[in-house]
Design brief:
- The protein is mostly helical.
- The protein has ten helices and no strands.
- The protein has two domains: 95 residues, Orthogonal Bundle (Rna Polymerase Sigma Factor, Chain: A); 66 residues, Winged helix-like DNA-binding domain superfamily/Winged helix DNA-binding domain (Arc Repressor Mutant, subunit A), CATH 1.10.10.
- 76% of the residues lie in helices and 0% in strands.
- α4 packs across α5 and α7 crosses α10.
- The longest helix is centred in the first third of the chain and has 23 residues.
- It is elongated.
Length: 187
């Protein structure tokens, strides 16, 4: 039995080989390979999507859609990186699509609309807009690292896996991003 300390660092080389083998089998149409991949990774994808969307039911749909994309792209999968990183990237992008759709077409019940004030506090709205503009000025890696840390509460290890970089790169991106935001917001 492996130590929990070893598994916290990410998938072992055995896990990576198994995922790559299952993807090769999936490319030939193996239903068993798909079922094994779903069994191994579904709960992790649901947790990731649920953290991003704050909606468990939506997260389950996202996980299912992610596996549909895995099946669709199994033949093209070359295993250059970690399968788990690739799979999490698919789920993260699908979650971001859901969030974008919500922003464009927010779903509000009549009861919630009646209880909600008609607009944000003007000062708060201005502050929010200033932060959004400052975030947009950041380089992509800094912006993504800060967002994953602040909005999703991910650890440096989780961010490193998502961005496919080292934890020290994440720490550097977050530090530089915070410094830049501080300068932008002072202007």
């Amino acid at each position: 039995m492996r130590s929990p300390l070893l598994t916290a660092a990410g998938p072992s080389s055995e896990d990576r080989r198994l995922d790559d083998q299952l993807m090769a089998e999936l490319a030939t149409g193996s239903q068993r390979a798909l079922e094994t991949l779903v069994h191994r990774h579904r709960n992790r994808l649901i947790r990731l999507a649920a953290r991003m969307t704050n909606d468990r039911a939506q997260a389950e749909d996202i996980a299912q859609e992610a596996f549909v994309k895995v099946v669709d792209h199994a033949a093209a999968y070359q295993g250059r990186g970690q399968f788990t990183s690739w799979l999490q990237t698919i789920a993260r992008r699908l979650s971001l699509n859901v969030l974008r759709t919500r922003q464009r077409r927010p779903e509000v019940s009549l009861e919630a609309a009646a209880d909600r004030p008609s607009c944000l506090d003007p000062e708060r709205a201005i502050e929010l807009k200033e932060v959004q503009l400052a975030m947009a000025r950041l380089p992509e890696r800094q912006r993504r690292a800060l967002w994953l840390k602040a909005a999703l509460g991910q650890s440096y290890r989780e961010i490193a896996m998502t961005l496919e970089c080292s934890e020290s790169d994440v720490a550097n991106a977050i530090f530089r991003g915070r410094e830049a935001l501080s300068l932008f917001l002072r202007d």
